[in-house]
From TrEMBL:
It holds the Pfam family M20_dimer. PANTHER family: ACETYLORNITHINE DEACETYLASE. It comes from Aquamicrobium soli. Keywords: Cobalt, Hydrolase, Metal-binding, Zinc. NCBIfam families: DapE-ArgE, PRK13013.1. This is Acetylornithine deacetylase/succinyl-diaminopimelate desuccinylase family protein.
Amino acid sequence: MTQKLLELIDKRVDDLVGLTVDLIRFPTANPPGEAYRPCAEYLGERLKRRGFEIEFIRAEGVPGDSERYPRVNVVARFDGRSPGPCVHFNSHIDVVEAGEGWSVDPFAGVVKDGRVYGRGACDMKGGLAASVIAVEAFMEAYPDFPGAIEISGTVDEESGGFGGVAHLAKLGYFSQPRVDHVIIPEPLNKDRICLGHRGVWWAEIETGGEIAHGSMPFLGDNAVRHMGAVLQAFEDELFPALDRKRTTMPVVPEGARRSTMNINSIHGGQTEDFRPGLPSPNVPDRCRLTIDRRFLLEEKIEDVKREVTGILDRLARKRPKFRYEIRDLMEVQPTMTERDAPVVKAVARGIMEIFDREPDYVISPGTYDQKHIARIGHLYDCIAYGPGILDLAHRPDEWVGIADMLQSAKVMAIGLNILLRGGRE
């Protein structure tokens, strides 16, 4: 039914690779938010030449935004010849830092052995490029299509998405009647549909003490030792309890089908306030711990928090001089789009046509920008689907397969055709 459309995508393979390489060469590392504006402008200029109306939206005042590192997003829209639904492809343009251990330049966009290497190749500039190629091929095949198509390049997903999709959602860019269906080309494998993600609660715990000379610790009260008691209680009580919890959500990998908590960071004493390498001469009077709690559809956020605060309150009652503060940093409810939602069924048909098999339906172990589309935009016809292997994300020598991008572009184009034209040839 869609042979013409698929042939147009095959003819664009060199353009697909070139676009991916170009996007990787913008070193959009977050933090601090390098090269956001030029990357957004590059994508906007390309889509403008294809007839899209372009908007650049800066999220002024959000964490990280500054004149040096402006949080600039791009939204492109093309209205068809007649009324109809709007399909929106959303990709984040920010990437994590390159880190050590690369065998190639992480921002060169190296092409070899059927792959494109570089930071963000997999997560998720390859997916962004595939969505652009899918849309451009669809528009050439069916110039009289009804409805509308949007493509966005948004920022700060790697740090929570507050300067990107969250900001745009607050402005109405991810709500009806403007948008009906959203596809986020995150790397969850080319034959999988990601319906949503686990919940997350980030919090900072701070223990207090009393400063004193390091040679006479008995005159002070050590906040780091108090935090050590917190960590020991977590090890003895909380982590085993979390490990026993299981979900019916199809989370991948298997280990993420349980509740988890990560200790993201710990800071105590004066050393961090001095130049690196200098010791602290004092008993530390403050210690801060950041936790990253991932929870399941079967859990309530109130219970998730109570598990932690219950331990802290008990220590406050039983441990001499123990006092603490706890601050919420972020909380997001678990999200799972229904399998019979229009965007799910449309992309599933694309996967069946390209791979001749039913897709796997999965849930992401971590959150991505679908959380803001559901939480703020109240739009639930949203999935993640794109090329790339999630296990490669954020690692040295990150890559995306050229054949995978091509096949994913075909799936997205077929899904687009179903959502806007009912799949007609």
